[in-house]
Amino acid sequence: MPDHILRRKVRAVRAVRSLGSAGVAETLGPAVRGLSVCAVSSGSFGLIEVIEYLVNAAPGADVSVSVWSSGGADLSQAFRMIQSGLVKRCRWIVDPSFAVRAPELCALLVEFFGAESIRTASTHKKVVMVRNDRLAFCVRASMNLQAERQLEVLDVTESPKVCDWYGRQFDEEFAAGAPADVDGADYFSDAVFAKDLRRAGLRFS
Question: Among 2, 14, 92, 167, which one is least packed by beta carbons within 10 Å?
Answer without folding.
Answer: 2
